[in-house]
């Protein structure tokens, strides 16, 4: 898997760059995975008090929330890149943010 990191200041076009890059790589027949690093204390992958959050609160090391439209795998902590990578199978990984990641 090849990794590309898109890093920059807030409102400088990182997401636009990532979206365009993903579209182009997919159009060329590659499989692509992305990581979006989020620095907001307001963001949570799950909603406190909801059933899947209760699983984590009870001590689950990993919770899968499977809905009608998508599936989310939730770990109850922030993972470093080296712990995320084993879960990703793709030709390319495009990372938005995560300036501490050791990728070009």
Describe the structure in your own words.
This protein has 104 residues and is an alpha/beta fold. The chain has one domain: P-loop containing nucleotide triphosphate hydrolases (Rossmann fold, 3-Layer(aba) Sandwich). It is 24% helix and 22% strand. The chain is built from three helices and five strands. The protein has helices at 14-27, 51-57, 81-84; strands at residues 2-6, 32-36, 63-66, 71-74, 92-96. A three-stranded parallel sheet has the order 1-5-2, with helices on one face. Strands 3-4 form a two-stranded antiparallel sheet. The radius of gyration is 15 Å and the shape is globular. The two termini are 13 Å apart. The relative contact order is 0.33.
List keywords for this structure.
about 100 residues; alpha/beta; Rossmann fold; three-stranded parallel β-sheet; 3 helices; about 20% strand
């Amino acid at each position: 898997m090849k990794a590309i990191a898109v890093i920059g200041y807030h409102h400088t076009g990182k997401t636009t760059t990532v979206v365009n890059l993903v579209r182009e790589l997919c159009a060329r027949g590659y499989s692509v995975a992305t990581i979006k690093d989020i620095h907001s204390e307001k963001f949570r992958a799950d909603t406190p008090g909801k059933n899947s959050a209760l699983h984590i609160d009870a001590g689950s090391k990993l919770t899968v929330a499977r809905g009608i439209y998508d599936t989310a795998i939730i770990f109850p902590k922030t993972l470093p890149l080296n712990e995320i990578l084993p879960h990703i199978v793709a030709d390319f990984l495009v990372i938005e943010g995560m300036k501490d990641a050791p990728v070009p």
